[in-house]
Design goal:
- The protein is an alpha/beta fold and about 280 residues long.
- It has one domain: Phenylalanine Hydroxylase (Orthogonal Bundle), CATH 1.10.800.10.
- Helices cover about 45% and strands about 10% of the residues.
- It is built from twelve helices and six strands.
- Strand 3 and strand 4 form a beta hairpin.
- Helix 2 packs across helix 5, helix 6 runs antiparallel to helix 7 and helix 6 packs parallel to helix 11.
- The radius of gyration is 18 Å and the shape is globular.
- The two termini are about 25 Å apart.
- The structure holds 7,8-dihydrobiopterin and fe (iii) ion.
- It is an enzyme of class 1 (oxidoreductase).
- It catalyses: (6R)-L-erythro-5,6,7,8-tetrahydrobiopterin + L-phenylalanine + O2 = (4aS,6R)-4a-hydroxy-L-erythro-5,6,7,8-tetrahydrobiopterin + L-tyrosine.
- It comes from Solimonas marina.
Length: about 280
């Protein structure tokens, strides 16, 4: 997974990017070796996630035809726009926060165009097209989740001048990237950072090592996250509707309140937490 980043070390070709940091994808430019690597990544991830991914992710994945090679974003857009009103836009890699939020607020999801190297099969620092596409696009077929991400983008643009970026990054991290859901199917994953990665999918659901707590916005905004290893804390939402609802109120007062309080450490238990047990397991001590 990826996390903190410095502009000087970004991978990808930014020289052709437009003012909004989008580029032309060029689906014909991927090599046979890249298509083959994509098929291997796709086959492994899609086979391991069936018992763990939430229904919305599985349904979305079934609607994208992307098993046979690096996908053409335009082909997926034809379906995605009808399903949820989202459009994928190609980007060279990580883009500036404000620009990223602008895209989300306009229901445009930035997808990195380059694919990892074979030696990065299991682990990658920055998002590549496999992470962005396989991890994020299935959930964007779901209108409720799509509403959450759009509203997140809108709120983020309003809250940036308030110095809210660290808080906004935590919220994105613990929901869009590492979120769990506990609905009629039991504990499941919806976060792209988990579902596009090798070992974290079973770990997030079954391991007794990490802490799982009921999602609560202020708790989440206060909690520092790990970029170097599996998460020590996961937040569990009750439904995608509940997640989308969180973003409907004005968050500026809450953000100011959270900014005045100390940050919380991943892996710790705090007063007011509602613990959620792993699948078939006990609560962590
Ligand atoms: N750019 N391509 C890309 N992908 C991201 O996930 C991303 C980004 N720019 C900024 C950003 N994320 C952060 O603002 C959020 O993760 C909070
Ligand atoms: Fe991501």
């Amino acid at each position: 997974m990826y996390g903190a980043h410095t502009d000087s070390s970004l991978r990808g070709n930014y020289s052709d990017a437009r003012a909004d940091f989008t580029v032309e994808q060029q689906p014909g430019a991927y090599s046979d070796a890249e298509h083959a690597l994509w098929r291997r990544l796709y086959a492994r991830q899609s086979s391991m996630l069936q018992p763990y991914a939430c229904r919305a992710f599985r349904d979305g994945l079934a609607r994208m035809t992307a098993a046979d090679g690096v996908p053409d974003l335009a082909a997926v857009n034809a379906r995605l726009e009808v399903a949820s009103g989202w459009t994928l836009v190609a980007v060279p890699g990580f883009i500036p926060d404000e620009q990223f939020f602008r895209h989300l607020a306009a229901r445009r999801f930035p997808v990195t165009v380059w694919l990892r190297k074979p030696e990065e099969f299991d682990y990658l620092v920055e998002p590549d097209i496999f992470h962005d596409f396989f991890g994020h696009v299935p959930m964007l077929f779901d209108r409720r989740f799509g509403d959450y991400v759009q509203r997140y983008g809108e709120q983020a643009l309003r809250l940036l001048p308030q110095g809210a970026l660290p808080l906004l990054a935590r919220l994105y991290w613990y929901t869009v990237e590492f979120g769990l859901i506990d609905d009629d199917e039991g504990l499941r994953v919806f976060g792209a950072g988990i579902l596009s990665s090798g070992g974290e999918t079973p770990y997030a659901i079954e391991s007794e090592i990490p802490r799982r707590v009921r999602f609560e916005l202020a708790r989440c905004l206060r909690t520092e996250y790990r970029i170097d290893n599996f998460q020590k804390t996961y937040f569990v939402v009750r439904s995608l509707d509940a997640l989308a609802d969180v973003m409907t109120r004005d968050l500026s007062a809450l953000v100011a309140d959270v900014q005045a309080k100390p940050t919380l450490t991943a892996g710790h238990e705090y007063p007011g937490d509602t613990p959620v047990p792993p699948r078939g397991g006990r609560l962590a001590a």
